[in-house]
């Protein structure tokens, strides 16, 4: 299963979710964690619902949201900061999220903190 591990808006401050995607194929118990963050979302659940619907429509994948937070993406200074939590899903493991973002943005300074909302 190939799914991009991080997909976020190119700039701004916005909500994000960390989603665990499981294979539903028999004998394949693999899973991958993915980061999705978009400014259009009023709620963390808006992102999860849209992404899960797209990934699950083929019947081969199952999704679960394992937390959320916020991302500040400054493309001019090449910095991404992950922080905060989701009222509905709880706090994502920001250490995992930042590792996914570092792969997607290898020239960026990617940091995280448990403080903030």
Q: Percent range for helical residues?
A: 10-25%
**Largest sheet entry:** 6 strands, mixed
CATH superfamily: Janus/Ocnus
Beta fraction:
35-45%
Unreliable segments (pLDDT under 50, ≥5 consecutive)?
none
Strand order of the largest sheet: 1-3-2-4-5-6
Q: Which class best fits the helix and strand makeup?
A: alpha/beta
How far the N terminus sits from the C terminus, by CA atoms, comes to 33 Å
What pattern of helices and strands is seen along the backbone?
A: EEEHEEHE
Tell me the radius of gyration: 14 Å
GO cellular component, one term: cytosol
Subcellular location: Cytoplasm
Family: Belongs to the janus family.
Keywords: Cytoplasm, Hydrolase, Protein phosphatase
Describe the protein.
It is a single chain. This protein is α/β, with parallel strands linked by helices and 117 residues long. It has a single domain, classed as 3-Layer(bba) Sandwich (Pyruvoyl-Dependent Histidine Decarboxylase, Chain B). Helix content is 21%, strand content 39%. The chain contains two helices and six strands. Strands 1-3-2-4-5-6 form a six-stranded mixed β-sheet. It is globular and about 45 Å long. It starts with 5 loop residues before the first strand and ends in a 5-residue tail after the last strand.
């Amino acid at each position: 299963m190939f799914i991009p591990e991080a997909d976020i808006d190119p700039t701004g401050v916005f909500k994000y979710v960390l989603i665990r995607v499981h294979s539903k194929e028999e004998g394949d118990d693999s899973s991958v964690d993915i980061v999705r963050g978009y400014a259009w979302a009023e709620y963390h659940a808006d992102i999860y619902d849209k992404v899960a619907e797209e990934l699950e429509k083929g019947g081969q994948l199952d999704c679960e949201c394992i937390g959320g937070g916020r991302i500040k993406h400054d493309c001019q200074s090449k910095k991404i900061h992950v922080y905060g939590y989701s009222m509905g899903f709880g706090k994502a493991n920001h250490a995992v999220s930042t590792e996914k973002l570092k792969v997607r943005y290898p020239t960026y300074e990617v940091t995280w903190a448990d403080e903030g909302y």
